[in-house]
């Protein structure tokens, strides 16, 4: 049974495509896969409005002996990409995403990710956790994941980020998850991982920016609490949005209730974003994302 599951995973691929919209794209793509004995098992597509005129496609396919056919399939798509001005990527079932998690003091998002990882449902492998505080070290080391304590100040920021990048390279990290990491990454750091850093924050922005957002939201009497997961860019908290959700709050909820409800939304939204990213269901497009959920 385990051998069959592994064999099926090894012979499965995911193709993501983004290109200007025009007739014949789906036909050419499916024919090219067919010519390599690939069987399409799932296909999702989206076209933007006629003015923007852009086309997006996600295809899951199976192909016997895929390992030995990869190069010829990808070579065929190099030719196809020239015809359609196409950006494309192949991802394969036997290739797991290597994750690094950055944390500070709050544990709810980290614990949600660790639980899914232990269950085998995260669709990625957590290789290390980096914290600018040591509060969460025990949680991480209890599940045998390396924890690196790298305190950071304004004066040491450049030095610490250099060390972080060295660790990410050492562990061959594909994706960074900011699980309530209360530091702003520098543009020079971000450029190493374009659309590979996922952040979670409360959706009070821009109304309740800065410190103590739940306190100020409580004082304002908000009726909805939300969270937003997005890719990190140079523009603070303005990167392409992956997922959002909300929960309603009532007049009888205290500040502590708002924080509890907020943490529940945050961990749910972040987990969805990470899973969708790991399963190659997201195509960034400008400051938006196409999410095939």
Strand and helix layout:
Layout: H1 2-10, E1 12-20, H2 25-34, E2 39-47, E3 54-62, H3 66-84, E4 87-92, E5 97-103, H4 108-119, E6 124-131, H5 137-141, E7 147-149, H6 157-170, E8 175-178, H7 187-190, E9 197-202, H8 213-220, E10 224-231, E11 241-248, H9 255-278, E12 282-285, E13 288-291
Parallel strand pairs: 5-6, 5-8, 6-7, 8-9
Antiparallel strand pairs: 1-3, 1-4, 2-3, 9-10, 10-11, 12-13
Helix pairs in contact: 2-3, 4-9
Class from secondary-structure proportions: alpha/beta
- Give me the strand/helix succession: HEHEEHEEHEHEHEHEHEEHEE
- Helix run count: 9
In CATH terms, the superfamily of the largest domain is Formyl transferase, N-terminal domain
Runs with pLDDT <50, length 5+? 1-5
Overall geometry: globular
Keywords:
293 residues; alpha/beta; Alpha-Beta Plaits; Rossmann fold; 2 domains; seven-stranded mixed β-sheet; four-stranded antiparallel β-sheet; 13 strands; 36% helix; globular; disordered N terminus
Model description:
With about 290 residues, this protein is α/β, with parallel strands linked by helices. Helices cover about 35% and strands about 30% of the residues. The chain has helices at about 1-10, 25-35, 65-85, 110-120, 135-140, 155-170, 185-190, 215-220, 255-280; strands spanning about 10-20, 40-45, 55-60, 85-90, 95-105, 125-130, 145-150, 175-180, 195-200, 225-230, 240-250, 280-285, 290. It has a 7-stranded mixed β-sheet with strand order 7-6-5-8-9-10-11. It is globular. The two termini are about 30 Å apart. The relative contact order is 0.12.
């Amino acid at each position: 049974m385990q051998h069959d599951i592994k064999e099926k995973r090894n012979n499965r691929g995911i193709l993501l495509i983004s290109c200007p919209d025009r007739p014949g794209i789906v036909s050419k793509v499916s024919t090219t896969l067919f010519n390599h004995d690939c069987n399409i098992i799932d296909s999702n597509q989206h076209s933007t409005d006629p003015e923007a005129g852009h086309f997006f496609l996600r295809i899951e396919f199976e192909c016997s002996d895929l390992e030995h056919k990869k190069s010829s399939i990808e070579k065929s798509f190099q030719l196809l990409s020239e015809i359609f001005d196409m950006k494309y990527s192949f991802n394969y079932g036997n290739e797991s995403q290597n994750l690094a998690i950055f944390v500070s003091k709050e544990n709810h998002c980290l614990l949600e990710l660790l639980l899914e990882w232990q269950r085998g449902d995260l669709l990625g492998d957590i290789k290390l956790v980096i914290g600018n505080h040591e509060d969460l070290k025990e949680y991480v080391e209890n599940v045998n994941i390396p924890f690196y304590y790298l305190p950071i100040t304004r004066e040491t920021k450049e030095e610490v980020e250099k060390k972080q990048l060295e660790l990410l390279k050492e562990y061959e990290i594909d994706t960074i998850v900011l699980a309530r990491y209360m530091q702003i990454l520098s543009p020079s750091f971000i450029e190493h991982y374009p659309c590979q850093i996922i952040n979670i924050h409360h959706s009070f922005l821009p109304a309740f920016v800065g410190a103590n957002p739940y306190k100020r939201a409580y004082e304002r009497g908000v009726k909805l609490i939300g969270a937003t997961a997005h890719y990190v860019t140079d523009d603070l908290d303005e990167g392409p949005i992956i997922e959002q959700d909300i929960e309603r709050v009532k007049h009888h909820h205290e500040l502590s209730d708002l924080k509890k409800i907020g943490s529940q939304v945050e961990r749910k939204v972040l987990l969805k974003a990470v899973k969708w990213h790991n399963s190659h269901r997201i195509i960034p497009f400008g400051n938006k994302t196409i999410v095939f959920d």
